[in-house]
Amino acid sequence: MNLKRFDRFLPLAIIILMTVVYLCEVLILRLAELRQTEFILLLIVNTIVVVVLLFRTHKLNARNIDSIRALNESAENSLNATLDTMPIGVLRYSDKDYTPEWFNPFVDIIFANDEEKLEANHIKEIVQDIDDKGTQYLSVNSKKYAIKVDQKKNLIYFIDATSEVVAKSVTSESRPVIGIISVDNYDDATDLISDSSRTVINNFIATNIDGISSKYNVYISRYNASRYYIYTNYLTLKKIMGDKFEFVNVFREEARSKNFSLTLSIGLSYGLENFAKIGKTALDNLELALVRGGDQVVIRENINTARPVYFGGNSASHIQKSRTRARAIATALRTIVLESENVFVMGHKYPDMDALGAAVATKIFANMNGKEAFIVYDEKQLLPDVTRAIAKLNESKDGFAHIIRMDTAYKLKRDNSLLIMVDHSKTSQTMDYNFYKKFDKVVVIDHHRRDDDYPENALLSYIESGASSASELVVEVLQYQNDQVQKMSKTEASIALAGISVDTQNFSKGTTTRTFETASYLRSQGADNTLIKKLLATDFDKYKKINEIVLGADFYEHFAIGLGQYRKMYDNVTIAKAADTLLNMAGVDASFTIVNHENGYVAISARSSGDFNVQRIMEKLGGGGHFNNAAAQVYEKTPTEVKDDLIEILKNIEADTKSE
Ligand SMILES: Nc1ncnc2c1ncn2[C@@H]1O[C@H](COP(=O)(O)O[C@H]2[C@@H](O)[C@H](n3cnc4c(N)ncnc43)O[C@@H]2COP(=O)(O)O)[C@@H](O)[C@H]1O
Ligand SMILES: [Mn+2]
C-alpha cells in the first residue's frame, strides 16, 4: 500500500529532490564565489538528470502494467481451459425460471443424448429435490452423477460418481446372508415308522437340500435331520427372491406326491457386520415363519428399522401342533403360576366366545394349582353372547365367579401377580393396555399368527397357529394336569365348547383330530348343546342387520363383497356373521363385508373357504388375522372407498397369480 503511494508520487519526488540538490549546489558555489555561467551549467546538468530519471520511471511503470496485464490474461485463459476441460459439469440457471443460462462443455458431453434433461422443469426438479446433505444422484445414459447445488449463485455441479455408486452396490451385494431351513412336521412324519421308511424320508430331504445348494451355489450345512444352516451373500439371495423361493413350493408338491406331510420354513437375515446378530435375527425370522403357519420364508435385514418380507404361506397352516409341546407348556405354565401371588386372565378388545372360553379354562388351570385367578372384562366392550355367558357364570353356587370388571382388577393386582393374555398376542389388541403395562410377568396363549406388536419379555408364549381356537389350546393343556377329578362345571365346559364352535364355524373350518378330541373331552366334562345354542343365539334385530349386509353384496369373479347400509353402524359379530353367510353362497371362494363400525372406523371382515389367503389381503389394508379368517379397521375413509381399495387389491393379486 505504502509502496504504491510512493510509486504515484515518484516523478514529483524526483523534481523536489533535484531542486533541493540544485539549491545546495548554488549555496556551495556561492561560498566558493564562482560566476554566473557555472550556475547556469549546473542547472542544465541537473535538468538533464531529472528528465532522464523521469523517463526511466515512466518506462518502469509501463513495463509493470504490461506484465500484470499479461499475467491476468494467462490466468483467465487457464481458468477457462480448466472449466472447458475439467471432468465436472457446471451449469448456471436463471433464478427466475430455472432455464440454463450458461454451462461448460462437460455438461454438453453429459447430456449429449439426453438433452431434454437440460430443460427448465428438469433443472427445477434437481434444485428442489436436493436432500438435506445437498447431494443427490442423477442417472444419465449409463452414468451416475453426484449433484451439488449452490443455490446462492444458481450453480449446479455434476460430478461423475459412476464408480462410487458401483462400489457401493458391490458392497451391498456382498453382504453376508445367514439362514435356517426347518423341515416342518419332521418329528411327526418320522415317529413310529420303520428305519427304512425314515431313511427314505431323510434321503428325500437331503436330495432336495443338495439341489438348492447346487442350483444357487450356496453353502448349506446340516445341523440335524430337520434343520439346516445356509450361508451365502445378498447377490445370491436376490436371485433366489427373484425366483420367489420356488424351491419351497417344489419341496411341498414333491413331498405331497410321496405322501409325506412335509414342508419347509425358512428364516433369513443379512447385514454388514455383527454376525451373531444376523444369526439371531435369522432365528427370529424362522420363528415368525413357523408361527405364521410354516411352509414359508421370512427375510429381515439385520437393522432395527427393517420390516420382514414374506414369501409363500399360500396355503393354510401346515404345521401340526404336537402333543409333546402341549405337555411341556402345561409344566412350564404350572411353574409360573405357582410362583405368582394371583393370576389375571384378559382377552382381546371386545372379547368373543373363544376369548372367554380360553379365559375360563385358564382360570381353572390356575385354581387347580392352588392360585386365585380372575377373568377381567370391560362392561363397555361386551358382545351379546359373551354378556349372556358371563351372566350364566355369575349364577354359580358360591356367588363369586371371579369374573371382575377392570376397576376391581386394578385394585386386586399385586406386585407379584401374573397376567395371562388369551386369544391375542398383539398388545394393541389387548382389552386394557394400561392394565397390561402394570405387569412384570406376562404369558401369552394364542392361535393367531404372531405379529410384530408382541409383548416384550413374555415369560412364556404358547402360540399355535395350527390350532382351531384359543379354547382348544388351553383345554388341551388343562387335560395334562395330573389329577383325574372333575375339572369344569357344565357352564364352563359349555362356554369353552361354544368358543371352539364359533371359531370353527360349527366345526366346519380349521379343525384337526385334536379339535374333536378336545370337544369330546369337554362333552365328558358336561358341555351342553342346548346351553351352547342359547348362548350363541342371534337377536332378531342383529339378524336383520346381518341380512342387510348380505343383501347389499356384489359378486366379483369368485369373491363376494357385502356392504352395510349408508350411514348405518354395525358391530363386529354382525359383520363377521354376514361374511360367514356370504361364504356359504355357491361359487364364492372368499367373502368380505365392509361397514361403518360403531367405534368410528370402517370395519372389514374377511373369510375364505380354504385355498385363498384373506389374511394377506387384510394385511394390505392394515389389519390381519388368519389364513381364512381375517379383518381390518380403516380410518378416514368411507365403506365405498374401502370397497374400491379392496377391489384394486384383489385385481392385483389375481393378476400376480395369473402371471406366476
Ligand atoms: N387389525 C387387526 N390385526 C390383526 N388381526 C385382526 C385385526 N382385526 C381383526 N383381526 C383378526 O381377524 C380375525 C377375524 O376377525 P373378525 O372380527 O372378522 O371375526 C372375529 C369375531 O368378530 C367373530 N365372532 C365373534 N363372535 C362370533 C359369533 N358368535 N359368530 C360368528 N362370528 C363371531 O369371529 C372372529 C373371531 O376370531 P378370533 O379372535 O380369531 O377367534 C380375528 O382373528 C381377529 O383377531
Ligand atoms: Mn379365537
From TrEMBL:
Binding site for Mn(2+) 1: 348, 352, 423
InterPro entries: DDH_dom, DHH_sf, DHHA1_dom, GdpP-like_PAS, GdpP/PdeA, Oligoribo/pAp-PDE_c-di-AMP_PDE
Regions that span the bilayer: 12-32, 38-55
Binding site for Mn(2+) 2: 354, 423, 447, 503
A Pfam match: PAS_GdpP
Similarity-based family: Belongs to the GdpP/PdeA phosphodiesterase family.
Protein name: Cyclic-di-AMP phosphodiesterase
